[in-house]
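FORM 12-B: Structure-to-Sequence Request
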């Protein structure tokens, strides 16, 4: 039996897709943050997943105010496993809290509210700036490719490291509760 839940906040749906993938793989229940606040007891152990905006994992502060966040997963436009230090610093995630990043992709038509307009304006400015450069760094090449190759980049294989961590964490927690660890 799983001792923690997966709580997420999604905008374009990529974070929700990853939460559902993790739920299927681990047996942990996956709930949107707004619902989790209503149904889970305060202080419940959760893995929090949120979309990355301006380097921050959206919903993280609300999640830590209500739950015992044992790990964080940020879903953004950059390749999985990148930008860990930047996201940790911008979101103010403790250095002892495991942090994972996944690539969700970029689908402006799925964004809600002002984010749709903001990303459209930012995309034009960024691509125009990059087009003026004679040579691009690796990060700039990735950024350019991201804006040229729009769409979902949700990859079921990219959750493998998180699944392994969750299974190990579950076993360690079980042994601790039994007084073995």
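FORM 12-B RESPONSE
SEQUENCE OUT:
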């Amino acid at each position: 039996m799983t001792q923690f839940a997966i709580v997420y906040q999604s905008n374009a749906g990529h974070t929700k897709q990853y939460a559902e993938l993790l739920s299927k793989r681990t047996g942990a229940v996956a709930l949107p943050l707004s619902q989790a606040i209503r149904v889970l007891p305060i202080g419940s152990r959760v893995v929090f997943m949120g979309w990355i905006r301006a380097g921050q994992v959206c919903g993280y502060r609300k999640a830590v105010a209500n739950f015992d966040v044992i790990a964080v997963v940020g879903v953004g436009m950059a390749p999985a496993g990148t930008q860990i230090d930047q996201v940790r610093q911008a979101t103010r995630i403790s250095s002892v809290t495991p942090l994972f990043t996944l690539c969700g992709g970029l689908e402006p038509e799925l964004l809600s509210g002002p984010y749709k307009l903001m990303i459209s304006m930012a995309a034009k400015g960024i691509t125009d700036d990059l087009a003026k450069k004679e040579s691009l760094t690796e990060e700039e090449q990735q950024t350019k490719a991201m804006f040229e190759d729009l769409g979902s980049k949700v990859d079921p294989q990219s959750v493998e490291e998180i699944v392994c961590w969750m299974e190990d964490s579950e076993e360690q927690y079980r042994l601790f509760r039994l007084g073995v660890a």
